[in-house]
Amino acid sequence: MQHLETLAVHAGREDFAQLRVHAPPLDLSTTYPIADLATAGESFEALIHGGDGVANSIYARLHNPTVARAEAAIARLEGTEAAVAFGSGMAALTALLMARQQAGRHALVLRPLYGTTDHLLASGLCGLEAEFVEAGEIAARRRPDTSLVVVETPSNPTLDLVDIRATVEAAGGVPVLVDSTFATPVLQRPATLGATYVWHSATKFLAGHGDVMAGVICCDEEHAAPLRTLRGITGALLHPLAAYLLHRGLPTLALRVERAQANAQLLAERLAAHPAVAKVHYPGLGTVRNAGLLGTQMRGPGTLLSFEVRGGQAAAAALLARVRLVTAAVSLGSVDTLIQHPAGLTHRMVDEATRRAAGITDGLLRLSVGIEHAEDLWADLAQALAGT
């Protein structure tokens, strides 16, 4: 088995020698010529039932070779049989929730989660009744119609960790979906711990440069087929240009994560010692729930941290207005450092009582650390903190 760093460079490129190319081809075709009706008919039949690797792609809503190469690469990184790519992370989740309805309309969900994930699940828009529970309640709250358990680890934005192996055991055969966006396959591979689905907002680390919208579900072929069928019907396939850029970003994934993680550890330590900061949430400081999973489930503390400034929302807003090198913006996982206010932005649609119970205070800021020089980042944060 090759190391992840090698797979990140070479996965999804297995047909390059045959094609006599060195860089990933970009296929923008919307339709594909039919040389033989029987073969095309077989391909169409396979695609509408969730198949892959067909002789003819038929129509770009159903299949695209550039997308397929990116999917193959990400599946190799996660150690799954398949990956199914969508136009955004939320499009991927929506398809999965809709696909699970056939097995049952009840889902068990652990908080905290990304705010839009929380909002979508709580709304019931995708046909599942979401019951929000604690990790220790999963086994007792399972019902005959429970078709999914949803967790995010590390969690957004408090960086709490969830024990994936224990969650799978408690789920008792119910498929477990792990949002592993924050960890990436560099630091965590949920499928090896028993998770049925591994979900990434590929907009973030996998693409890594702030110029791609994409989502991907990694799983075995049995669970991938319904997702492809639903994707083809609804037209949610990732655009090939986005897939091309996503694939191009993968070779530097490990390098980016390792550099940004080193920066994050240094910044977390300095923020924790700053008088204007009340608390820092970061696995590398041991200040998050289940921090003991670091070194076993997770191979490193990651590149994200959150910290609470003294003075609440007014102080947080003042800091956001004062940063110069760090960009005040939502999203994460890019090569540059981003900072945002969860209560006012990404988790604004989550009701206040739920936010506070999850530790999302008015003074909490989430920092996605990039690959800049750590001292330059600290200088910017320090001057911004001086004005809070």
Using brief descriptors, characterize the structure shown:
globular; 388 residues; alpha/beta; Aspartate Aminotransferase, domain 1; 2 domains; Aspartate Aminotransferase, domain 2; 7-stranded mixed β-sheet; 5-stranded mixed β-sheet
Ordered list of secondary-structure elements with their pairings:
Blueprint: H1 4-10, H2 16-19, H3 37-48, H4 65-78, E1 82-86, H5 89-100, E2 106-110, H6 115-123, E3 129-133, H7 138-141, E4 146-152, H8 164-171, E5 176-179, H9 184-187, E6 197-200, E7 215-219, H10 221-234, H11 240-249, H12 253-272, E8 277-281, E9 304-309, H13 312-322, E10 327-328, E11 338-340, H14 352-357, E12 364-368, H15 374-386
Parallel strand pairs: 2-3, 2-4, 4-5, 5-6, 10-11
Antiparallel strand pairs: 1-7, 6-7, 8-9, 9-12, 11-12
Helix pairs in contact: 1-4, 4-11, 5-10, 13-15
Describe the structure.
- This protein has helices at residues 4-10, 16-19, 37-48, 65-78, 89-100, 115-123, 138-141, 164-171, 184-187, 221-234, 240-249, 253-272, 312-322, 352-357, 374-386; strands spanning 82-86, 106-110, 129-133, 146-152, 176-179, 197-200, 215-219, 277-281, 304-309, 327-328, 338-340, 364-368.
- The protein has 15 helices and 12 strands.
- The protein is globular and about 70 Å long.
- By secondary structure, it is an alpha/beta fold.
- α4 (65-78) packs parallel to α11 and α5 (89-100) packs across α10.
- It folds into 2 domains: 4-252, Aspartate Aminotransferase, domain 2; 253-386, Aspartate Aminotransferase, domain 1, CATH 3.90.1150.10.
